[in-house]
Write a structure and sequence with these properties.
With 216 residues, this protein is mainly alpha-helical. The protein has a domain of 147 residues: Orthogonal Bundle (MetI-like fold), CATH 1.10.3720. The chain has 8 helices and no strands. It is elongated. The relative contact order is 0.15.
Length: 216
Amino acid sequence: MDFTKLSEFVPYFLPAAWMTLKITTLGILIGLFIGFPMAFGRLSTRKWLSLPSKGYIALIRGTPLLLQLFVVYYGLVRLVALAPLPSAALALGVHNGAYIAEIIRGAIQSINRGQMEAARSLGMTHMQAMSRVIIPQAMLRALPPLGNQFIIALKDSSLASTVTVRELVLTSRQLASSNYMMMEMLAIAAVFYLILTGLLTLLVNHWETKMSVSRA
């Protein structure tokens, strides 16, 4: 392994790192958009809400992300033209949504039922009690596992390389095919992933501290 000339190839990875961030951000936003309603559907006593939510979560958690990515990329293309980037972001978002839903559901159920009863006794409606009492506390408890899920989403974005999205992994493979420095290119990609996950971890820790201070 020759690491003496790696600095020459680092600029080629900058657009790939930006692409990785875009896929991750879109996947997380789509996952949050799906996860919250699915969490409340999962908690609902109405079967027409809970059964579809349970089915979605079981299906997504029971199948690999790579398979879901192929289904979106090769399956939806027959219905609507999707470029590789939105296909990867959609697949990642649908995948994240199931795990985010379970995180939110678990956080809400971890709040003592007495707090709901106390809020209702003060004259709040169920929705008011949820929005003012239960959800703020649940979000504080959900933030650490949500942060872990966001980091997992960042690393899972590497699977977008299988549908020709030029993120870090595909860029390292393409460069290695021309310079025959596979391990060196993979090492550069690994460093970029470490930097990105480190920055995301710092951001999540900042949110945790801010929310803890706000709650105090």
